[in-house]
Every structure is written in C-alpha cells, then in structure tokens.
Amino acid sequence: MKQSLINLLPPATVAAIWAFWGVAPAAWTQGPWAIIAVGLGTLAFVQLLELVFERHEGWRINGRELLTDVFYVAFGYGVIGFLSDTLVNGPLGELKEAWGIGTPWLAASPFLVQVLVVMFVFEFGQYWMHRAMHNWTPLWLTHAPHHHITQLNAMKGFIGNPIELFLISLGITALLDVNLNALFAAITAGGAIATYAHANVRADPPIWYGYFFTTIRNHSLHHTALSYEDTRCNYGNSVIFWDRVFGTYKEGESEVVGQDDRKRLSIKEQWLFPLRPWLEKRKTAA
What we know:
Elements: H1 2-7, H2 9-23, H3 26-29, H4 34-52, H5 63-99, H6 104-107, H7 111-133, H8 137-147, H9 162-167, H10 180-198, H11 207-212, H12 216-222, H13 241-245, H14 267-272, H15 276-285
GO biological process, one term: lipid biosynthetic process
Transmembrane segments: 7-27, 33-53, 65-84, 104-124
Subcellular location: Membrane
C-alpha cells in the first residue's frame, strides 16, 4: 500500500501543478515570481523525496553534487532563460504578430487541452533535437557532458554544456495562442515530469502515466553506462509518447549511469567538452 502511494507521487504532483494554474486566485498565479516559485518549489520537493524514498544508494546526493546542481539550476533559470526569451521567444512573438499567425481554435479550447497541446508540441521539438544530439557528432559533443553524470538526482536535468542547454530550450510555443496560465502550467508540469525522470526517488508511476510521460525507468536506461547503443532511445525529456510514435522507445532500467570511463566532469570540463577533439589534437602536436 505504501509503495502504491509513492508510485502516485509523479502524477499527483503534475495534477497539483495543473490545478494551481487552473483554479488558484489570480493574485497567486499572476505574480511576477509565480512561475519561478512553482518551478523551484517542485525541485525542492522532489529533492527532499530523495532523502525519504531513495531508489539507489549509489545515487545518494552529496555536498559536491548538490552545489553543482544548484549552480546549474541558477544558470538555467537566469542565463539560459534570458537567452531563450531574448533570442528566440521574443522574436518569434514579433514574427507571429507581423505575419498574423494565429491558432484561435487553441485559444478557444478548454484549459487542460491548451496545456497538453503546448507540452506535446514543445516536446516534439525537444525529441528531434535530443535525437539529433545522439546521432550527429558536432551536436553530441555539446550533449555528452550531460551523459557523463554518474548519478541521477532531481536537479540533474539542468546539467550540461551551455550550448546544449540553450539548444534544448528552443521551441515554437511562442507562435501559439494560449492562455498565459496554460502556458505556465505546461512549462512547470513538464519541468516536474523531467525532475522525477532524473530523480533518485523510488516511484514507478502507473502504466497510463508511463505511456505518455517519461519516468525514471525510461530515462535511467537512456543514461546507462552499460551500452552506448542503449542511450540512443527514450529521448523524451518529459513526454515519452513521441519515442513510441517514432520507434525509439525501449523498455528497461539501469542503475549504472555515465559515459566512457564514467569519470565525473568538473564544470570547466563540461563547458570545454565540445573543444575536446581540438584540445587533444593540439596537446598531441605539442
């Protein structure tokens, strides 16, 4: 009975986030810090769950891991968020107005329909970007640092090379006509799903949830250190449905995660990783 309740934590969290944006008073949802509070609150909640419902002892968080994770969360919300809004979402919004692009049918749809459309459209782009990163060397060099993590924790989805973090944040949702609360619900619910998908929490959600949304079982196999070929599956960050549609879904789980020799990279090594072939060639020549 206890484990059954633990298994319901991911869907219950997503439902709570949807309910907050859908029915909470405007004074709560329209504050300038509301989306950040929901996002960071979810991260903190799942991180605390790791202490109570640990999945693997080998993934247990320590001080160094926690500090690195917190740094990347701040970097993601601050730098990557700013760059995405300034270089992509803002210009797309202007293009939408200039070209008269509209989705009135979506604006007239029920709240939850708008939320799901935004989530699935955004994840469609993320799926193909992520898949390209595993199948084209230049992009893989930006993504590989994320696969060098040797344990999974709640905030690990934020870790990676800055180029990859920017590329994986891109989407076309700025072209959609949606209620602002629905947009925020989609963003924060997707973040919650991805958080659980990286977390050291002993929760295996119901089959219906795992059919559409990514779980730690799906994503731990994607991070496996046992076979590089097995990392070329389950690309969905929060929506696993597109993997099922395009034939890249694979059942399984892996407790051993990492890449190559499973050496944990420092932040400096993660940021310089795309230059690694050039740096090694230069070192050999010297």
